[in-house]
Give the backbone structure.
Amino acid sequence: MAENMLEVDDIRLSFGGLKAIDGCSFEVERGTITALIGPNGAGKSTTVNTIAGAYRPQSGKIRFNGEDITNLPTYARAQKGLIRTYQISREFGGMSVLENLLVVRRGQSGERLINAVFRGRQSKRETEALVAEANEILNTFGIYKLRHEFASNLSGGQKRLLELSRAVMAQPKMMLLDEPMAGVTPALIERLGSHMVELNRSMGMTFVLVEHNLEIVEKICSQVVVMALGKKLAEGTMAELRSKPEVIEAYLGGGAHERVGG
């Protein structure tokens, strides 16, 4: 099995005359939590979108679990275990919290009409097992009591927890998170970070996250990739990156030493 779960090799993507990704390359080791950081407009979210399949690079390769997925559609990548979340939560508002989790699991025998008709008992057992699994995940993320609530009625922080719960229900090998800490309280930031660390520790789940909160990045990430102008500028731990002049100049700007130290 490949040591690297993800390999991004010299990908390029332009919108008109704008180079959104300009020869970006990096690797993500299996079982790690890796952050993409950099200034606004560095190409971080576009890179995550391209890895997830929302965009196709005009050149370069993306390999996941040793397989070239450069031209695969988003749903095919998800079936292989590459699951992503968004900057703005995209819950199914007209469904309950519990239903939001149940709907993401593929391959249920009851999805086929013939099985629902002739193998009803098996479908019922599968459904009961899935509900139990979903409830366990909701309990882990502290939103079990909201399981029958419409997802549209949740607060912003609760929607973040729902989105992460739903991603776990999809059985990911790697989770791509685009600014998961944006717009949430400091207490919830700590909680989300703790959940990622626990999923990484207990299930070996690999994470790649775009994040501006350097404090949480330093706490939970073993590897950090700094992007600027659509390409990788540097990589290492936050402690290593603090001393790199090119990172301070391109990303952190004025007062950078103080902020990196914090």
Observations:
- The longest helix spans residues 120-140.
- The first strand starts at residue 4 and ends at 15.
